[in-house]
Amino acid sequence: MPKQRQLSSAMRYSMGSFWLAVLVLTAFVPPAYTQALPISMGKSIHVTGPFAAIETKKGTARGVSGLACLAPLKGIRSCLAVNDEERFAEWATFDGERLLPTGKKIQLLSKTKQQSDKIVGTMPQGICDKEDNFEEFDGEAIAIAGNKVFVVGSHACTREKGKFKPSAFVLARAEATGEALEATDVERSWRLSDIIRHSSLSDAFGKHGAAGAGIEGLAVVGDRLFLGFRTPSVNDKATILSVEAGDLFTPGESPSGAIPSEFTLELGSNTGIRDLAALNDGRLLVLLGPADASDGTYMLHIFTPSNRKLRPLAELRTDVSGMKKEGGGAEVAKAEAIAVLEQTEDAVIILVTYDNIDDGGPRLHRISLPKD
């Protein structure tokens, strides 16, 4: 097993009082497992200044649907965040107390209504109920491995109207520098659609709503991508697909012939994967939540691909309500993204961000880890 990293001094910020507060807020609930899960409220992290919102509709929260962070430099981390309503991802800095959007963007797609960017592979055809424009990237997850950052679109038809927005069926790769990049600096691929079609999810690909395949989680271990699907949730099961990244970005229009590895997770009724994050020993953190748009419980699990063992870790909560709906109640605050900050032999520190909360409502959690 690789040597575990020690917690940096920047992350030891008044940890005594913080973790005491977490313990006070910890309770036990009866989940669908043989033992109760601890509830982690974590610590609210202040966002200093808003994330950019160019195409997000007025009245829609600037949620953070994907997040990943670089190793710290002099106690400061650069973290890349994506809002699924936009065509770009934005860097922010994190000092252990505050998340500061920098305005430095990775332009995932050019600012045009028609496709103008170079994308390898071939755009999927004959899916969804109706055609739509090339618009937002619909970024759902981010993963950083080495000097590369990957951002994945949902690869799903629009949930309510079943529209095909080609811009949502793209995987992007770029240099992970913490600096702004233009659209011409970004690699893009259509080929994840081929991978889904070569899997047990082929019948669900191109359908809309709960019956359709939709990516919401992404992790990278070595050269392998792990893709977590929120939908479909069939027979209480959700799916992770894994494929080597290199083939996906080979120049040319040819489709991928790769057959992905598949992992089927028994999660319970109407439960899907909301995000994935890789640990430094090859295990994956798996964020789970409702497969549909309903309110529900958000839980963190740990998954070992080598033996397909899945273990529950904690229920994650926030005390912040979602944005108000027009004419009434609050939208549900949905845990959407996890970013690993520090890992020791027995614990991991993560940032969790939410949809339906402006700037993602980030919370910092310390979660105990099993040793096997």
Description:
The protein is mainly β and 372 residues long. The chain has a single domain (9-368), classed as Tachylectin-2, Chain A. The chain is built from 2 helices and 27 strands. The protein has helices at residues 15-24, 192-197, and strands spanning 28-29, 37-40, 43-44, 46-47, 66-69, 77-82, 88-94, 98-107, 130-131, 139-145, 148-153, 163-164, 171-175, 187-189, 214-221, 224-231, 237-244, 261-266, 271-278, 284-290, 299-304, 309-316, 324-325, 328-330, 334-343, 347-355, 363-368. The strands form 7 sheets. Strands 1-2-22-21-20-19 form a 6-stranded mixed β-sheet, with no helix packed on it. It has a 5-stranded mixed β-sheet with strand order 4-8-7-6-5, with no helix packed on it. The protein has a 4-stranded antiparallel β-sheet with strand order 3-27-26-25. A hairpin with a 3-residue loop joins strand 7 (88-94) and strand 8 (98-107). The longest helix has 10 residues, at 15-24. The chain starts with 14 loop residues before the first helix and ends with a strand.
